[in-house]
Design goal:
single chain, alpha+beta, Metallo-beta-lactamase, Chain A, 6-stranded mixed beta sheet, binds 2-acetamido-2-deoxy-beta-D-glucopyranose
Length: 287
């Protein structure tokens, strides 16, 4: 049953990925906010799929850039990032927001670790990044609230409440949680896995009960929400709180689409509509 679900999920992802933004090209989502798609290949049941992933570059009021996530490095991407950031000189810091989006930090760091004038570029990650990627000099992890607030009020970083962020187990099916990065000036939120936006349509999407334009909850939700009774409701209420606090118009998700306009209203519908799911998860955690 589980493998069937994973298989369907994979089909969903593959399908959703077809019509999205071109790879390696910065797309200006809103004022001072750029999002870049990257390839992410996985072989599942003998078939190679491109699930895609993403990164964002935020131009701060200081003129410096905050980089959220990294994607596969190559000449085209480097050249595009160099153009935006003066060959990396304008990069202030790089932040890794998702425990399992780790592969591309080492190659990114090998290029962008200090500026031409010698200023070190600061790197921040999830606890799993700090445990597993020793080639990067990390300046701290996102469980530290003062790090999450470093770029306030322009950028606010939050960890979804009552989710497994520090050491999610089992590793292969607990990818639900990741920090959200909110950029107030462009009314945009950068999310990796917690929610999936179906930018395209297809029969597999329909099989999963989703369709083009749906914003769905990641299938690892049961593992990803902590295992005490109220945790599902605490997560739900946290989502209602961020909706109220940020009223973001644009929701960018790693796999694999961007919802431009109407973001927080759509998310509100998704959460309103999942009341049975949250009750089921809470009941399961009762004993
Ligand atoms: C960036 O690097 C390129 C190639 O090395 C060079 O031609 C260009 O002048 C550099 N730009 C800046 C602003 O340093
Ligand atoms: C830092 O970046 C430079 C290129 O800008 C590179 O030559 C060097 O190897 C990098 N250092 C590390 C430790 O990756
Ligand atoms: C609400 O959930 C049902 C099934 O649980 C689904 O069929 C429907 O598409 C969902 N609607 C929205 C707006 O998410």
């Amino acid at each position: 049953m589980k493998s069937v679900v994973i298989f369907l999920f994979t089909l969903l992802i593959v399908n959703v990925c077809i019509a999205i933004n071109p790879i390696n090209v910065p797309v200006e989502i809103g004022k001072d906010f750029y999002n870049i798609r990257g390839d992410w290949f996985e072989v599942i049941q003998g078939v190679k799929y491109n699930l895609r992933t993403h990164m964002s570059l935020i131009r701060l009021a200081s003129g410096k850039f905050l980089v959220i996530d990294t994607i596969e490095m190559n000449n085209e991407l480097k050249s595009n990032i160099d153009k935006l950031t003066n060959n990396g000189s304008l990069i202030e810091a790089v932040v890794a927001v998702h425990p399992f989006h780790t592969t591309f930090f080492k190659p990114f760091y090998a290029i962008y670790n200090r500026t031409a004038s010698g200023r070190p570029i600061r790197y921040f990650g999830t606890p799993r990044h700090l445990r597993n990627i020793k080639d990067v000099h990390w300046d701290g992890d996102l469980t530290n609230p003062s790090i999450r607030k470093l770029w306030n009020p322009e950028v606010d970083i939050q960890i979804p409440k009552a989710t497994e962020f520090i050491n999610p187990q089992p590793e292969e099916s607990n990818h639900f949680s990741g920090a959200f990065a909110f950029h107030r000036p462009s009314k945009t939120v950068h999310i990796d896995d917690t929610f999936i936006y179906a930018e395209d349509d297809g029969p597999e999407v329909a099989l999963l009960g989703a369709k083009k334009g749906d914003l769905i909850i990641h299938p690892d939700v049961d593992n990803g929400i902590k295992q005490y009774h109220n945790a599902p409701y605490e997560f739900r209420d946290w989502v209602y709180q961020i909706i109220k606090d940020f009223q973001f118009e644009n929701i960018l998700t790693a796999h694999c689409g961007n919802l431009i306009g109407g973001g927080y209203k759509k998310l509100q519908q998704t959460i309103d509509n999942a009341s049975d799911l949250f009750k089921k998860l809470a009941d399961k955690r009762k004993n």
